[in-house]
Amino acid sequence: MPRDTLTREKIIKAAIDLLDSDGLEGLNIRALGSRLGSAATAIYWHVDSKDNLIALAADQAWNEIALPDLAATGWRDAATAMATDLHAMLTRHPWLLQAFGSFLLFCPGKARHDDHTLAIYEAAGFSGAQADRAAAAVFTFVLGNALGAAAEASLTRKLSRYGGNAEEQIRDHMAKATEIAKQFPRLRARLDSAAADYAAAPEGSFEFGLRAILDGLEAELTTRGAKAGRTDRETLGHDHQGNHAGKAGAVTS
Predict the structure, then answer these.
(1) Dihedral sign, CA of 89, 94, 95, 98?
(2) Rounded Cα–Cα distance for residues 89 and 110 (Å)
(3) 109-141, pLDDT tens digit by residue?
(4) How far is CA 200 from CA 146, 175, 228, in A?
(5) Range of 5's domain?
(6) What distance in Å separates the CA atoms of residue 127 and residue 119, rounded to the nearest whole number?
(7) How many degrees, rounded to 5, is the angle at CA 159 between CA 98 and CA 88?
(8) Please, which pLDDT band fits residue 251 given cuts at 50, 70 and 90?
(9) pLDDT of 189-202, one tens digit each?
């Protein structure tokens, strides 16, 4: 593909496709050029380095997450939608989890996501550091749940890299893991479940965990509201008693 028919958008899309299939370790300008039918020099004309290309790909991935309209959606539904969308995005692009530990990737797309997330928890009633903590609790939960799929994809690529049969090797490993698990009663009872597969979790685990975290945040808001109400009543009570005392003093004098 001649240089003048390339665009940055085409390059980024091809890079994301390559990253999705081959991971960070599979992204190089030669492989990307082969996908685009273009020379590496033409790609560098639009993207000045591999690191910059990964940052641009990450930015586009973050922009895939929809931002719920807080004027039309309650905070809890909005939080659920964004967390679910983030989990889906990270599952589609498992290389992004790899990239967190290797590249500095704070980009406009992530800033857009983070800012709207904070707006959700501020709408709920949290403020300042409290909103930060609420957002961080949900964010790290989502990352943890996306790690399984990312780890499996990375391991499969690694095992296949030198011509090995990744599926067969994982199956052999899981057979050995099963023998170990049989020594423990609770693990033995779960060996026939889907959760016994490599990097798997029980069905509905993500939804269960997210609901539990949001329940906890909602309870925190309720507790804070109750405490604030008690404080207001106590303050009002003290002021009321002080006014009575002042009136009594004025009468006796």
Answers:
(1) positive
(2) 12
(3) 999 999 999 999 999 999 999 999 999 999 999
(4) 11, 15, 43
(5) 1-48
(6) 10
(7) 40
(8) very low
(9) 878 776 656 556 77
Which class for 185: exposed (0-12), middle (13-18), buried (19 or more C-beta within 10 A)? exposed
| The model scores a pTM over 0.85 | no
CATH assignment at residue 20: 1.10.10.60
Cβ proximity of 24 and 54 under 8 Å = yes
228 falls within a domain: no
Write the single-letter amino acid at 119. Answer: A
d(CA 122, CA 135) in angstroms, rounded, equals 10
- pLDDT digits 0-9 by tens, 25-77: 889 898 999 999 988 889 988 988 889 999 999 999 999 999 999 999 999 99
Domain total in the chain: 1
- Dihedral angle of Cα 86, 88, 90, 94, to the nearest 10 degrees: 180
pLDDT at 128: 93
Q: Does 4 reside within a domain?
A: yes
Structure tokens at 110: 């992530």
